[in-house]
């Protein structure tokens, strides 16, 4: 069974059995990024996610979330579980259109 590179299953599937770190993208080093997950999968014990650069703008963020989720992102069907390059935490849930502004505010507050 081939797994989506964005998914880590629970249910007895070992980390090494699905490829370990080879399956995941590294955190971006060149600017702020958030790790967004499918909230429905996360609530079911699976991590289906990817790194997204909120500074790319609302259209790019929405496109990346749509690709991740396989559906149009709506508030509550995705969540932020990690972030890099931002001095303050971005809220775990917010509207995808608000993500670039929230990341910008967090970056400015840390200056």
Describe this structure in words.
- The protein has three helices and four strands.
- Helices cover 25% and strands 19% of the residues.
- The longest helix is centred in the middle third of the chain and has 12 residues, at 58-69.
- It has helices spanning 39-43, 58-69, 99-109, and strands spanning 7-8, 33-38, 47-52, 78-84.
- The mean pLDDT is 74.
- The chain is of the alpha+beta class and 111 residues long.
- The radius of gyration is 14 Å and the shape is globular.
- The chain has a four-stranded antiparallel beta sheet with strand order 1-3-2-4.
Distance between the termini: 47 Å
In total, the number of strands is: 4
Major sheet size, sense and barrel closure: 4 strands, antiparallel
Number of separate helices: 3
Strand percentage lies at 15-25%
Give me the secondary-structure category: alpha+beta
Query: What is the molecular shape?
Result: globular
Fold blueprint:
Blueprint: E1 7-8, E2 33-38, H1 39-43, E3 47-52, H2 58-69, E4 78-84, H3 99-109
Task: Describe the structure in brief.
Helices cover 25% and strands 19% of the residues. The protein has three helices and four strands.
Keywords:
111 residues; four-stranded antiparallel beta sheet; alpha+beta; globular; 25% helix
């Amino acid at each position: 069974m081939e797994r989506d590179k964005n998914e880590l299953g629970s249910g007895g599937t070992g980390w090494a059995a699905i490829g370990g770190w080879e399956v995941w993208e590294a955190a971006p080093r060149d600017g702020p990024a958030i790790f967004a997950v499918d909230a429905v999968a996360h609530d079911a014990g699976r991590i289906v996610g990817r790194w997204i650069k909120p500074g790319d703008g609302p259209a790019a963020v929405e496109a990346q979330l749509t690709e991740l989720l396989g559906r149009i992102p709506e508030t509550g069907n995705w969540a932020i579980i990690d972030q890099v390059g931002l001095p303050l935490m971005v809220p775990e849930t917010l509207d995808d259109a608000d993500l670039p502004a929230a990341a910008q505010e967090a970056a400015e507050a840390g200056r």
